[in-house]
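Hello forum,

I keep getting stuck at the same step: I have a sequence, I want structure tokens, and every attempt I make locally crashes halfway through. Rather than fight my setup again tonight, could one of you with a working pipeline run this one for me? It's a single chain of 188 residues.
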Amino acid sequence: MRMMASERTRLPDDAQEDRQTPIDERAFRDVMGRFASGVTVVTTVANDGAPVGVTVSSFSSVSLKPPLVLWSLGLRAPSLPVFRGAGRFAVNILPGTQRHLCEQFARPSPDKFSGVAYRRDSNGLPLLDGAVAQIICSTWRRYPGGDHEIFVGRVQALRAWDHDPLVIYRGSLSSLQPLPESEDDASS
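Reply #2:
Ran it on my machine without issues. Output:
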């Protein structure tokens, strides 16, 4: 069934009314917390060569052609000016064994890399040892997103290892492990 252009863009009357209703911030956080998400540390390098990183769970793939990913950073984050000016970043997907890195990069600190095992790629981007995956990007676009800025990166290189990822669900961190294969799966 084809829809007319006006039908595709017009919301039903009750949805238009709902759009005007303010959403309670706590309720919004609680509902969004019911969506399990992987945990990453996004890294870059400052103009002086210092490594910069921040814990991010607002990460997603966007497109295959071209290969694009996105993540967002709060407008009050001290590292925002560095990410804006860097032009490139690396997404380090954390394994369940690196909960400590999630917590370390989530806290304000003058040196978040203290005691962290990492290496630098050919452009100086910090890549965390032991990650599930590393996705190296150039900043493709930035968009305003309420109290956050959305970064869209064009993937330049990537690599992955076989580790169980760290996930956050309802404010709690845990390691995601594959479900055992069911009899139905085995017979297909």
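The two ends are 33 Å apart (CA to CA). If your local run keeps crashing, start a new thread with the error log.
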